[in-house]
Amino acid sequence: MKKILLILTIAILTFSCKKKETPEIKEIEIRKKPTAISYHIENRKDWLKANTTNDTQLGILAALNRTDKANFAKMDSIIVPSDLNEKIENYLPFPLTVPFLRDVDKIIFFSYPSQTFAAYEKGQLVYTGQTNMGRKKDPTPTGLFYTNWKAEKTTSTFNDEWELRWNFNIENKKGVGFHQYALPGYPASHSCLRLQEKDARYLYDWADQWVLADKENIKVKGTPVIVFGSYDFDGKKPWLQLVKDPLALEISKEEIEKETTPFLDKILTEQKNKEAYQNNK
């Protein structure tokens, strides 16, 4: 009996020691897209006459052609997928899971080359869609930004006749932000990041505003936003490449890691600052 008790005691102590030595690992569900979907180009009017589509499927077609439904109705040729029954994130290039971002509460990415955006929480894609960014004459600045102030309706700094809805500023001095505005299907803005209304509204509600200490100083920064890549303004629309290669525009988790790494320490420092502020409110 004493021998059995001694063995049990040793086993318990050994298990306890091993448990203490094992670092805590944050689990993250790895999500994958289905088998690659093929694409082809068709005349819009002819395709719509021959095919029955619902509102969700029309939304997917608009996203693939980097436009909105109003401008989609004006297009001649469109890119069409072989299957229109997947979730929208399976047609757009951002990865569903990025383990490197597991410690980042919230972050938004805008890809210039693919004209798409994505929002992540703890490394999981929670929302994605199309965008039309800055034109050649007025390119959208790239790098790390944070969501600052927001307004349901405001006017453009370029033209006071332009009404911007669900506007969220990310560069206060230059007046750059993301907001609802017409998406013609190519970079056409004066440096801002244009979105469909439903997408602009989602990010408007989802992202966090800054907290100001006074008129000149920021106490807490908002949600990090990384704008990356470049656009070939003199070439064909990049998404036309999908016809030859369905994965031509895919953004890998390694690319997201590469774009985020130079800013990760800053992002996590600001995140801790925000947590401390919220805990002391």
UniProtKB/TrEMBL annotation:
Keywords: Cell shape, Cell wall biogenesis/degradation, Peptidoglycan synthesis, Transferase. Pathway: Cell wall biogenesis; peptidoglycan biosynthesis. Residues 106-228 form the L,D-TPase catalytic domain. The active site is at H179, C192. GO terms for biological process: cell wall organization; peptidoglycan-protein cross-linking; regulation of cell shape. GO terms for molecular function: peptidoglycan L,D-transpeptidase activity; transferase activity. GO terms for cellular component: extracellular region. Belongs to the YkuD family. This is L,D-TPase catalytic domain-containing protein. It comes from Flavobacterium hydatis.
